[in-house]
Specification:
CATH class: Alpha Beta
InterPro entries: CoA-bd, NAD(P)-bd_dom_sf
Strand order of the largest sheet: 3-4-2-1-5-6-7
Number of domains: 1
Number of helices: 5
Shape: globular
Largest sheet: 7 strands, mixed
Protein name: Putative CoA-binding protein
Order of helices and strands: HEHEEEEHEHEH
CATH topology: Rossmann fold
Organism: Desulfosporosinus meridiei (strain ATCC BAA-275 / DSM 13257 / KCTC 12902 / NCIMB 13706 / S10)
Helix content: 25-40%
Strand content: 15-25%
Number of strands: 7
Structural class: alpha/beta
Distance between the termini: 21 Å
Oligomer: single chain
Radius of gyration: 13 Å
């Protein structure tokens, strides 16, 4: 998985599914850290219109551009749905934050040809 981590971190445009405007939540921390690390980042949360001045989109399908990678920060049952959306959109890199993954989501992602990172925190891997 280390080579896969490097490959996914090499992607320039990300979407964070499960963004929060609560600065103590991981959805906020992941979104903010990816931006600080120099990535172009889309926020995904159907309950928010914007976060820190950036537009927030209700779904991956609603994005103006397909992201190269998706970071998922939602409960496992929602992650399982997001994997299907990624596959249908041709998104081939997914990072499941600890706590968002499920065996079913991981297996389905791999079956769909998606590079799936799990059991690793993107916050740790993007600190500079």
């Amino acid at each position: 998985m280390p080579n896969d981590i490097d490959q996914v971190l090499g992607q320039k445009t990300w979407a964070v599914v499960g963004v929060s405007n609560n600065t103590t939540k991981y959805g906020y921390k992941v979104f903010n850290q990816l931006k600080k690390a120099g990535y172009s980042v889309f926020a995904i949360n159907p309950g928010l219109n914007s976060i820190d001045g950036d537009p927030c989109y209700p779904s991956l399908t609603a994005l103006p551009k397909k992201p190269d990678a998706v970071s998922i920060v939602v409960p496992p049952k929602i992650t399982e749905q997001i994997i299907g959306e990624c596959a249908s959109l041709g998104i081939s890199n997914v990072w499941m934050q600890p706590g968002s993954e499920s065996k079913r989501a991981i297996e389905e992602g791999k079956r769909q040809g998606i590079t799936v990172i799990h059991s690793h925190c993107v916050l740790i891997h993007t600190r500079k």
